[in-house]
Design brief:
Elements (H helix, E strand, L loop, with lengths): L3 E4 L2 E2 L8 E2 L2 E4 L2 E5 L7 E4 L4 E4 L1 E6 L7 H4 L6 H17 L2 E6 L2 E2 L1 H8 L7 E4 L3 E4 L25 E2 L1 E4 L2 H13 L5 E4 L18 H13 L4 E5 L2 H10 L3 E4 L5 H9 L3 E3 L3 H8 L9 H7 L1 H15 L19 H9 L2 H15 L17 E4 L16 E6 L2 E5 L2
Parallel strand pairs: 1-6, 2-7, 8-9, 9-11, 12-14, 15-16, 16-17, 17-18
Antiparallel strand pairs: 1-4, 2-3, 4-5, 7-19, 10-13, 19-20, 20-21
Pfam families: Amidohydro_1
Protein name: Amidohydrolase family protein
GO molecular function: hydrolase activity, acting on carbon-nitrogen (but not peptide) bonds
Length: about 400
């Protein structure tokens, strides 16, 4: 197949530089040239549209696309759960997200099915099941249900939310099992959470020594550990153990942020899920008590973002949406744009997220040699970042050089 040329768009390349009018040449799934294109090859007229790199969401839960409580109480069939997962994967692509990092819920079969093109979806990097301590965040069985029955909620090849460990040896066993199933990185829960059944936000979970076991196993496979963490003690434990990334970081203080920056540990804040839980707790299949946990999280997370930024922490972007309502994933960029600038939000969702995912230079940027992951927007999201919130504004989505959505 010969080259294709996208001409006429205002190009925002993901680096933070101002937009420029460039023609983009694509060949064999990659960007080969920026600037005036030759007449040879197919030409795609993008006059009046704005081009960005394909967006990246560094915190998704495709496997939590069904209402959560019914999902984990055998009230929803495997067929319906699969349908929900694949619908969410397609909606993610339609919102302009060509790459995602799944931070818990899907099993390896979902990654494979999408990669083979059997269902529409973004490029997926997955941690497989989340690693949790017994009685900690990530466990949604009934209080009377023995922990050893939790794995019966897993559906092989489709979804497996979490694995429980009571000590370092069990954790080592579980992370090796996660890698066997195809995980490309690890995620641990080291504090309680907002969407929690048996834990509190102030809880710390796993010891430094236990977290270090996961870090050791990840390093043996040339990858890394990220952690779900809301309070500073849990964050510091994880950083001390050698993790590379922190999800949420809701209560982050100045000294902890300074430590993260010194150890080059990234932060992925998650604002959209807090808004989602405040406005539609029931729609996510959660008890109303979850709303109370979410109420103070938005204000704390806003402060934490400013603290992290001041300390020089690398800050990515993740939506953390759960339940069936995951079609407006770009809302995370709109929310971040209101707290920073639209350009900073876009760079976080492209170049910075690519760095966090270990895909720097491959995705998240418009530059020769990168994957041809491109989105053409109806309007300029730098001038009106609310455009990100509505997937219909992503009128053309190109993934690895193929048009996967076209509303022109």
């Amino acid at each position: 197949m010969g080259p294709a040329h996208v001409v006429g768009a205002a190009v925002i390349d993901g680096s933070g530089r101002d937009p420029s009018n460039l023609d983009i040449t694509i060949e064999n799934g990659r960007i080969t040239q920026l600037g005036a294109s030759s007449a040879h090859g197919e030409r795609l007229d993008a006059e009046g549209l704005t081009m960005t790199p394909g967006l990246i969401d560094a915190h998704v839960h495709l496997g939590l696309s069904s209402p959560i409580q019914p999902h984990f109480s055998f009230q929803i069939s495997a067929a319906e759960i699969a349908a929900d997962i694949f619908a969410t994967a397609g909606a993610t692509l339609d919102a302009g997200f060509t790459t995602v990092r799944d931070t818990g819920g899907i099993d390896g079969g979902v990654v494979t099915a999408i990669a083979k093109g059997k269902v529409r979806g973004p490029r997926v990097l997955s941690c497989g099941p989340v690693q949790c301590q017994i009685g900690g965040h990530g466990y949604y069985g009934a209080e009377w249900e023995p922990t050893e029955l939790w794995s019966s909620h897993h559906i092989a090849g489709l979804c497996a939310l979490s694995m429980m460990a009571g000590n370092a040896d069990e954790l080592r066993h579980n992370v090796r099992e996660a890698f066997r199933r195809g995980a490309s990185f690890l995620k641990l829960c080291v504090t309680g959470g907002v969407v929690g059944a048996h834990d509190r936000l102030t809880d710390t979970q796993f010891t430094v020594e236990e977290i270090a076991v996961a870090v050791q196993e990840a390093a043996a496979r040339n990858t890394y550990v990220t952690v779900h963490a809301h309070n500073n003690e849990g964050i510091r434990n994880a950083v001390e153990a050698g993790v590379r990334c922190v999800e949420h970081g809701t209560s982050l203080d100045e000294s902890t942020a300074t430590l993260m920056a010194a150890r080059e540990v990234a932060l992925v804040p998650t604002f959209a899920v807090v808004e989602q839980l405040l406005h539609d707790t029931a729609g996510a299949g959660l008890a109303e008590s979850t709303r109370d946990r979410a109420k103070g999280a938005r204000e704390q997370m806003t402060k934490a973002l400013a603290v992290a930024k001041h300390a020089g922490v690398r800050i990515g972007l993740g939506s953390d949406l759960i339940g069936p309502a995951q079609d407006r994933r770009g809302r995370e960029l709109s929310l971040r744009a209101a707290l920073e600038t639209p350009m900073e939000a876009l760079v976080a969702a492209t170049q910075t997220n690519a760095e966090i995912l270990g895909l720097s230079g491959q995705v998240g940027v418009i530059t020769p040699g990168a994957q041809a992951d491109l989105v053409l927007w109806n309007g300029n999201p730098l001038e009106d970042p609310e455009l990100f919130s509505d997937p219909t504004n992503a009128v053309l989505v190109i993934q690895a050089g193929r048009i996967v959505k076209d509303l022109r």
